[in-house]
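Thread title: Can someone regenerate the structure for this chain?

I was given the following input by a collaborator and told the matching structure tokens would be attached. They weren't. Posting the sequence so someone can regenerate them.
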Amino acid sequence: MRRFSCRVYGVLRDGDKVLLTRSRFGASTFINFPGGGVELEEAPGDALRREFVEETGLVIRPVRTLYASQEAHLSTQAPIQIVSVYWLVEKMSGELRPAGNGDDVLELFWRAQADLPLKEMFPADLEFASRLPALLAA
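Best answer:
Regenerated them for you:
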């Protein structure tokens, strides 16, 4: 049986840099933006705030939606289609945990938006990341 997984991610900026995570799912490690899955009956903005605190230690405020998946992204890990929404966010409070969350996030780091590690991203995040500089300039 195929299902959908709705994912929300936040883009936190520091000058021309954005915050990224190195995460683990099963035996795979990958780079993406802080965020994750929307739970059943959870509002997407609430999910984004929850995931951001869990992964980074930071309390954020969603500012505006930047992008939503346009391609059909099938997971290589489970029989699901991934639909991702990316938000521009701003930090409200908290302390960044560069060493990750002790669970699925292995580390957090800043990277220039023009120099994102695209080869280490899953296709859903790659679709967005390749458009990020233009989206932030708008």
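DSSP finds three helices and eight strands in the chain.
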